[in-house]
């Protein structure tokens, strides 16, 4: 399907090593996961690449402390151990202290299905929605990850979350941080594809007269972009690679002045006690092109 | 004399240790204090009076020493010391806990002048202090010390143990912890708290938490290449 060898995580290591070289404010904090990718950068910047071991509360606490001294910390591990396990640290050591950080996750919702539930975090974006100030980026391609990472690190002392996945689209899109991109225009509703869901959405809607919007940044939610796309017909389908319905509230808020309907597709909240492969899980969640076609078509027609 | 709540710090002599009980009473409304309010008092006073290189004029200086109050519960002694040292007016103390007061029952660094962190939920200060020490080191600010105060019951929280093990292994020399031990941990610390730090390579001292000279000596003991903990033992809470 793809000729691109590079994963988003590979790109993350490359981009971040460059940022470490360029900007003395940047520091990377790791909890073993990903440490091998940063071995060279750690040799070049021993004080700014810190591996705390398998200690995720400390991962976020140390990032908060670094930020308190004026540094720009970048903390990385799997989403389940970056957002869910140390969630109170995210709430208190970053947000409550009034400091910023860039949190970069891998594995996301379903990247390692054979690893089972312990390595799945479909609720990460919904969890961050309970806290103020987070910018959330969900790139669909390593080149987008590169652009969004640079944007996130350069964005002052803000709170930035970059969600990387092994699932990626065939080609990179000319994304602008914070803006939805119109990929296809149609007359019978809008399908908003988030990050790595774009290829499946494009295939699913090939024969449907719909507008396809692409979101590589979901928070803040580009309400103006969605409103401009819906025109007079306020029918919207959200296709997100994490918990189904995570952005429903944002979509309703964007369209509150307009009669509208929203269908939120994504990973079901129920535990899915199967192993296997990524395509098998996408099919089971109704997120492959065939299932998406049926669900979108029956909602919009 | 300087304990007059309506006095300003302008021309009056700076408050001393003996004024602190009165300053605390401005918050508690009682001259007789609960152990939680005063267990930290002497350690805090010695730190701010004789050890820390930070004052009202240097709260934003990059090379200041940092003191992080992790045990945010019972912050009256902390507020009293900050007020006595001029970080904010003594008059603020009587507003303790009021809607518009910057002085909550747990401190918020965005509201309290001189407070390095907001705390209240236990077990956050030591990891934040580790990151602070890393950040100062990365910026070459090697003369700045980082201090964090925790309680013996707070030490139950696992996040402390992540930080203690890492800081010891990493040799974070500019990191200092003060543990106020009033024997309040439900299951105690068999063999003593200092042993947990020593086992991870920290320099340790266990002293009488009411004895200012002992505290001062322990606070200023050299500890090359290693982080340092001072366990300050005070009267048992119960």
Short key terms for the protein model shown above:
heterodimer, A: 301 residues, alpha/beta, Rossmann fold, 2 domains, 7-stranded mixed sheet, 5-stranded mixed sheet, 36% helix, B: 238 residues, 5-stranded parallel sheet, 8 helices, 5 strands, 31% helix, disordered N terminus
CATH class type of the largest domain in chain A: Alpha Beta
Walk across the major sheet of chain A and give the strand order: 2-1-3-4-6-5-10
The string of secondary-structure elements of chain A, in order, is HEHEHEHHEHEHEEEHEEHEHEHH
User: How many H/I helical runs of chain B?
Assistant: 8
Helical percentage of chain B: 25-40%
Number of strands of chain A: 12
Classify the beta-strand content of chain B into a percent band: 5-15%
The count of β-strands of chain B is: 5
- Structural category of chain B is alpha/beta
Kindly give the count of domains of chain A.
2
CATH superfamily of one domain in chain B: Thiamin diphosphate (ThDP)-binding fold, Pyr/PP domains
How much strand content do the residues of chain A show? Answer: 15-25%
Per the principal axes of the C-alpha atoms, what is the gross shape of chain A?
A: globular
Largest interface, and how many residues on either side? A-B, 31 and 32 residues
- Listing every helix as H and every strand as E from the N terminus to the C terminus, the arrangement of chain B reads HHHEHHEHEHEHE
| Multimer state | heterodimer
Radius of gyration of chain B: 17 Å
| Number of helices, counting only DSSP H or I runs of 4 residues or more of chain A | 12
How much helix is in the residues of chain A? 25-40%
GO molecular function, one term (chain A): magnesium ion binding
Protein name (chain A): Transketolase
Pfam families (chain A): Transket_pyr, Transketolase_C
InterPro entries (chain A): PDH/Transketolase, THDP-binding, Transketo_C/PFOR_II, Transketolase-like_Pyr-bd, Transketolase_C
């Amino acid at each position: 399907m793809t000729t691109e060898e590079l994963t988003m995580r590979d790109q993350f290591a490359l981009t971040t090593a460059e940022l470490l070289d360029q900007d003395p404010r940047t520091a990377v904090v790791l909890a073993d996961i990903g440490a091998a990718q940063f071995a060279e950068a750690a040799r070049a910047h021993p004080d700014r690449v810190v591996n705390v071991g398998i200690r995720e509360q400390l991962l976020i606490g140390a990032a908060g402390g670094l930020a308190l001294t004026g540094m720009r910390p970048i903390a990385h591990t799997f989403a389940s151990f970056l957002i869910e396990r140390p969630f109170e640290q995210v709430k208190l050591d970053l947000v409550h202290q009034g400091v910023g950080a860039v949190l970069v996750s891998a594995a996301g919702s379903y990247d390692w299905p054979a690893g089972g539930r312990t390595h799945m975090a479909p609720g990460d974006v919904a969890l961050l929605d309970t806290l103020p100030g987070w910018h959330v980026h969900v790139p669909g391609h390593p080149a987008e990850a590169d652009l969004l990472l640079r944007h996130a690190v350069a964005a002052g002392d803000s709170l930035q979350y970059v969600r990387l996945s092994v699932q990626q689209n065939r080609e990179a899109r000319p994304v602008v941080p914070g803006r939805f991109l119109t990929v296809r225009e149609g007359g019978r509703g809008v399908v908003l594809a988030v990050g790595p869901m774009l290829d499946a959405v494009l295939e699913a809607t090939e024969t449907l007269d719909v507008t396809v919007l692409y979101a590589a940044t979901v928070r803040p939610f580009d309400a103006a972009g969605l409103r401009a796309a819906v025109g007079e017909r306020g029918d919207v389908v959200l296709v997100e690679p994490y918990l189904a319905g995570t952005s429903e509230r944002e979509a309703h808020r964007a369209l509150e002045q307009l009669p509208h309907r929203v269908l939120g597709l994504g990973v079901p909240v129920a535990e899915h006690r199967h192993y296997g492969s990524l395509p098998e899980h996408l099919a089971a969640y109704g997120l492959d092109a065939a299932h998406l076609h049926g669900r979108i078509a029956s909602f919009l027609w | 004399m300087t304990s007059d709540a309506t006095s300003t710090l302008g021309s009056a002599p700076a408050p001393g240790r003996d004024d602190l009980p009165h300053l605390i009473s401005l918050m508690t409304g009682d001259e007789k204090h609960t152990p939680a309010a005063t267990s930290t008092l002497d350690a805090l006073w010695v730190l701010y009076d004789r050890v820390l290189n930070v004052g009202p004029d240097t709260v934003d200086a990059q090379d200041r020493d940092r003191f992080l109050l992790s045990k945010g519960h019972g912050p009256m002694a902390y507020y009293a010391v900050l007020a006595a040292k001029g970080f904010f007016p003594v008059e603020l103390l009587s507003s303790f806990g009021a809607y518009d007061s910057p002085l909550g029952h747990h401190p918020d660094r965005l509201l309290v002048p001189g407070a390095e962190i907001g705390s209240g939920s236990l077990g956050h200060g030591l990891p934040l202090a580790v990151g602070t020490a890393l950040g100062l080191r990365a910026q070459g600010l090697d003369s700045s010390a980082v201090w964090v105060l925790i309680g013996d019951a707070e030490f139950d929280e696992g996040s402390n143990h992540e930080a203690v093990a890492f800081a010891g292994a990493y040799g974070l020399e500019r990191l200092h912890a003060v543990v106020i031990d009033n024997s309040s941990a439900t299951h105690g610390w068999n063999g003593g708290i200092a042993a947990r730090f020593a086992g991870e390579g920290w320099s340790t001292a266990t002293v009488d938490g009411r004895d200012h000279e002992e505290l001062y000596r322990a606070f200023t003991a050299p500890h090359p290449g290693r982080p340092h903990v001072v366990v300050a033992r005070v009267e048992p809470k119960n």
